[in-house]
Amino acid sequence: MAREIVVTHEGAENHFTFSKLSREQLYGRRRRAVLDPVGENCQRAQLTNDGSLLLVRGMLGQGYFDDKNGYVETADLIGITEDGSQVDRQSATLNVAQPLSAAEPTEVLDLQVTTVYRLQTEELDPKLGKELDQGAIFRFPLNYQADFQVETAYLLKNDAGIFAVVGVPASTEWIEPAAVVEELFESEETEDDEIDFDMM
Fold it and tell me: Residue ranges of the chain with pLDDT lower than 50?
């Protein structure tokens, strides 16, 4: 079964297939190739701190190594908060209908974007389609895979198509001075420092 983003709006389900939009697709890419003495491509690898294991690309995608070089699968990890309590793992939301709620454009502007998906319409309610055409923006929870934190996705449309912009709200703290500091520049001029224009 294909993975879909499914959202509900006023009782109607809407289905989208999706593809991740990368910087390469927008701007192209340049890649620096490292070659060995015979002209073959080199593969990046990393030694563990004690030098006993050589890690190549993809080895850490499904797990991690602990301090004793024991392998821990990602599925066995648990989330812990600052106070030491355990965080429940949140289920993936793909193929599970998620409710849409109206959002303001400023929410998207204040978003710390992690991923952008280009959506392909499989089933779109005409009412939702009309609202998207008119510039409406909707938010919904999105979790690509089971994780400890559900991200926020924003459904929007522009001339290039329909997109889901995913991220976490970025909080900005403004610091204002408790009091206005006035700088006073006092001159320590003496009579000797004064210029007598009459002598010029």
Answer: 197, 200
